[in-house]
C-alpha cells in the first residue's frame, strides 16, 4: 500500500509492534539539556545502569544560561543545573558542549548545524520543540524525563502511532512575509489543539522553495498546533545544507546516505487522515494578541470580537482594538524558532540605518556560537549595535523566564519566540509573537508596525 513519510519513518524504527497501534521504537539520537535531564541520570544511577550508547547523545546547556556575563553564573539554581549536566555527562561518557565552546547554543539550533540531525533518523529531546528537526525528514519529538531515562538505558521508547495530516502551502509569499507568519496563520486557523494526535507533513511549492532555516521555523511551532511531530521530505536543499557538516557522512557513505534519503517521501497517492491547504499569497505578517499562539491576527487586523475575557484582561486589550500602533517596551530577537543566521539577517535588514525607539529595550540573542560568529563576520552585530540593540551570547534567553532575561509585570514585548502564555517571559509579562523582521520594525518604531510599510 502507498505510505506517507511518517509511516515510512515509523515502520523503519519499529522494534516490536503492539496490538493497540503502539510500538517499541528504536531511537537513533537524543539531545540533552540541563532542565529535563537531571532526574533521568539520577534514575540510571539508582538502578546501577550506564547509557547503552553514549555516542548517540549530545548535551548542551541552553535554557537557564545567562546571555550576558557567562562566568560565574550568578543565579545559584542555574549554576547548579549547568554544573550537574556537565558532571552527569562526564560520568556517563556523553559529549557535552560547555558554555565557552564555540558550538554551544540552543539544542534545536546546534543539532542541525553540527550535522547531528540527519534525514531518516529518530531523534528525541526533553523539550517540546524537538519537532524542529522534522524539517530534515527526521522523526523527531519531545519526551519527558522518565522517557529520557529509558532512551539512555535502552535506546528504545514505547509510542503510539499518530494519525497523519498534510498541510499543503502553495504560491509565493509576499514581501515581508516569512515562515513564522505561515505557521502562525496555520495555528490561528486550526487552533492550539487542532492537530492533536496527528503527525503533520508540510508540503507544496511554498515549502519546497523554503530554505532550511525557514523549514525549521515551520516545524518548530508544530507543537503549538497540538502536534508533536512536523515533517518535511528531504530534498536537494536539505542535502546542500548538510554536506560538510561536522557529523554528516562523507565520501562514499555520503553518497549512499543521499541515495537512501531520496526515498524518504510520501508516495504520490498516499492517503492522509486529514488535509489542509493554505494560499501563500493570502498570508500577511502575523501578530499574536492573546495568551495562546492561536490567538493571532494579521498585523493590519483587530482583536477579534468574542475574544476570551481572561486573555484580554491579561494583555490589557479589548475586542476590536487594532494591533498596529500598540506601544511596546521590549523586543526579543532569538529562540529556537528564530535565532538562526537567516533570522538575524532579516532583522538586521530592517534595523540598518535606523535607531531603536526611545523607551524600548531590544536584544538580539544568536541561537548558537556558530550563528553568532557568522553574524559578526557578516557585520550584522555592528548593524544591531549601531541601531541601539543589545548583542548577547547564545541561549534561550527571553523565550522563557528560566534565566536572567525576563520582563517586568505589565511590560509588552515584541518577540520572535514560540509561546505567549501567561508568565512565559516573566510574571505579568505581555508577549506578542511575530517574525524577526516584524520585531525589528517594532523596535525602531516603538509600536507594533507592519514591516511592509518600512
UniProtKB/TrEMBL annotation:
It catalyses: (2R,3S)-3-isopropylmalate = (2S)-2-isopropylmalate. Its cofactor is [4Fe-4S] cluster. SUPFAM superfamilies: Aconitase iron-sulfur domain. InterPro entries: 3-IsopropMal_deHydase_lsu, Acnase/IPM_dHydase_lsu_aba_1/3, Acoase/IPM_deHydtase_lsu_aba, Aconitase_4Fe-4S_BS, Aconitase_4Fe-4S_dom, IPM_dehydratase_rel_enz, IPMI_cat. Residues 8-446 form the Aconitase/3-isopropylmalate dehydratase large subunit alpha/beta/alpha domain. The keyword Translocase does not apply. One of its GO terms (biological process) is L-leucine biosynthetic process. The keyword Lyase applies. Pathway: Amino-acid biosynthesis; L-leucine biosynthesis; L-leucine from 3-methyl-2-oxobutanoate: step 2/4. It comes from the Bacteria. One of its GO terms (molecular function) is 4 iron, 4 sulfur cluster binding. Binds 1 [4Fe-4S] cluster per subunit. It is an enzyme of class 4 (lyase). Catalyzes the isomerization between 2-isopropylmalate and 3-isopropylmalate, via the formation of 2-isopropylmaleate. Belongs to the aconitase/IPM isomerase family. LeuC type 1 subfamily. This is 3-isopropylmalate dehydratase large subunit. It comes from Glacieibacterium frigidum.
